[in-house]
Amino acid sequence: MGNQYRMKKLILCSLFIPFTGFNNIHHKSSTNLVQVRTGDWPISLERTIENSDTSYSLQFRDQQVVTNVSLDTLPFPNLTQLKYFEKALSTLKNGNNGDIAKFKNYSIKRAESRTEGRWYILRYQWGQTNFQQPEADLMITTIRGL
Known about the structure:
This protein has 146 residues and is of the alpha+beta class. The protein has three helices and eight strands. The strands form two sheets. Strands 1-2-3-4 form a four-stranded antiparallel beta sheet. Strands 5-6-7-8 form a four-stranded antiparallel beta sheet.
């Protein structure tokens, strides 16, 4: 009687395994494309491949939060959207102080001073980070190489 009960239980369990998701193979890998800046205020550009979809993200520490570490991620769902980001940086590089590139979820503003040179202010949702021209050039070069 015990063997029959265990056999029925085993057969019953095997019928439900396909519905539990164990048979769905989920591949996800992330690659750091470039570490734009390290240290206390890091910025990095990453590529994530999930099954057959590729997305990109810019990760940065929110510079408005000084007392804690708050990391933000600006997502780019595909290469086309990332290329718009690169185009904005390239256009602002040749633009004027105070120029702004506005997108649906984020904006980039060019700021310049005689002592500190050319800066960019990236605002995404409630987060913000700043980066200088050499860091923008590194992102431009990396994105153009994709």
